[in-house]
Amino acid sequence: MSVPIRVRLTAWYLLVLTLVLVALGTFVVVRLRESLTAELDRSLNLAATQIASGYRSEGAKDFHDVARTVLPAPGTRGSSTQVLSPGGTVRLSDGDPMARVALVDAVAVRAALRGTSVAQTRAHPAAGSLRLVAVPVTRRGRRGVVVVSASLQTIDQSVHRVLKLLVVGGAGALALVAVGGWWLARKALAPVERITTHAERIDADDLSDRVTVPRARDELGHLARTLNAMLDRVQEGVLARERLVADASHELRAPLAAMRAELDVSLRHDELDDAARRVLESTRDEVVRMSRTVDDLLLLARVDAGRLEVLHEPVDLLAIAHAGARDHAAAAREAGVALVVTGDRAGALGDAARLRQVVGNLVDNAIRYSPPGSAVRVEVWATSAEAGVTVADEGPGVPEDLRERVFERFARAEAARPRQAGAGLGLAICREIAVAHAGRIWIEDRRPHGSALVVALPRVAPPDEWAEERHGRRTLTSSALSRGPRTEPSNTSPIPRT
Ligand SMILES: Nc1ncnc2c1ncn2[C@@H]1O[C@H](COP(=O)(O)OP(=O)(O)OP(=O)(O)O)[C@@H](O)[C@H]1O
Ligand SMILES: [Mg+2]
């Protein structure tokens, strides 16, 4: 799963700040401990020098007297002094009783005797962490070492307190940065989100819209301008393609009509032999198919140019269903498929010719995908809000992978058999016409008993005279249809796909 930039930016802020705080905290703690220890060393050194000088001049008595006055934190654990012989034995001691045993090792004693300043930290089993300073002393020709010790507990406590403050302060700073970083990232990315939302609304049906360019001439302004320039190019390309399709279809229409007329005339000659007749008939079928595709392309070009005009007159969907079915009655007979129209008269506002084309396209598909001996049912229905026509067949149903895009242009099953192969424009046209009527079209899966395509339009109240004519449900079969339905829509005009 992709993590949003906002989250990633905030996480990066946090990571960087955590590293900075840890580095800073470590530096502060180490420096603090160093400087406090140096401070202690100075006072231990001073005390050791004073004790050594007292011991040098007056011996044991002054040793104890001076020790009691100069030892840092006298009477506390770890605060002590001792005089060691060069061999490391304790000659005198004062303060914490632990000083009765030598507090530094032979190496430190030797170093102190050489005059090197000795300051070391040592963990004592009884007194804990100790800081020890040793200085040389000579009394009456006898050399020795004065050792002064103090507990490091106070320093540890101070460092610990600072560490605690750093942790608490650091956590607070991290929380603030998390909130602030999140807010900043949101604020910085909000224009990107606005551009994205706007760009998402621009679809192929209306490419004239452009994203709003932010006022600041920064990266986001650049992004918006680049996006708009790209949309300009896309729109130009789409318009050029639409013009090409419209022009080409227009140019093809007349020659195709002429070819069809000439083929019809040629087919009327009786002296044609069978082979020639078959060739001419198949050529005419191809020409008819091409003319139909060209008409479809022209209609879609009109839709794209916003020039698809539909009438909005009261129409009777039952009459339209009959007319649409009748247009394909011959094809149904040829395919051995029964074509049945059922339902009552239902009123809608629309363009009878266009709606007849919709029903015709649906019936055409249904017949093409129906096995011989099965039935295609055209049912007219009405609810309180809608009136519509359902065309159901007993074929294989629309393949799963096609169902989503079956109303898009040129969408058709890959493995269509020759009898079924079309240009893939029929249902796209049906949708455009339905939409132009403020209606809708959808597909219902009725497998294993085929598919049903439903077109629904806003309903209008039927005229009064219909009620008088109504005499229950009527059912017409393809043979009945070939004679024509009882009622014809008054405004039916010739449609391209006949
Ligand atoms: N009743 C149906 N049963 C099974 N598949 C169908 C049915 N109606 C449509 N289809 C599938 O949907 C595709 C698209 O149908 P559409 O009517 O748009 O195009 P077409 O029939 O292939 O070509 P055209 O209608 O332009 O001659 C068809 O190719 C077919 O695969
Ligand atoms: Mg079709």
Automatic annotation (TrEMBL):
Biased composition (Polar residues): 488-498
An annotated Gene Ontology molecular function: phosphorelay sensor kinase activity
Assigned keywords, A-Z: Kinase, Membrane, Phosphoprotein, Transferase, Transmembrane, Transmembrane helix, Two-component regulatory system
Listed Pfam families: HAMP (PF00672), HATPase_c (PF02518), HisKA (PF00512)
The UniProt record lists the keyword Phosphoprotein: yes
Residue ranges, annotated region (Disordered): 464-498
Enzyme class: transferase
Catalytic activities: ATP + protein L-histidine = ADP + protein N-phospho-L-histidine
Gene (UniProt): sasA_10
Domain of life: Bacteria
InterPro entries listed in its UniProt record: HAMP_dom (IPR003660), HATPase_C_sf (IPR036890), HATPase_dom (IPR003594), His_kinase_dom (IPR005467), HisK_dim/P_dom (IPR003661), HisK_dim/P_sf (IPR036097), Sig_transdc_His_kin-like_C (IPR004358), TCS_sensor_his_kinase (IPR050428)
Cellular component annotations (GO), alphabetically ordered: plasma membrane
Record-listed E.C. numbers: 2.7.13.3
Membrane-crossing segments per the record: 12-32, 165-185
Stretches assigned to the Histidine kinase domain: 247-461
Principal localisation: membrane
Compartment list: Cell membrane
All copies of domain HAMP, residue ranges: 186-239
Name of this chain's protein: histidine kinase
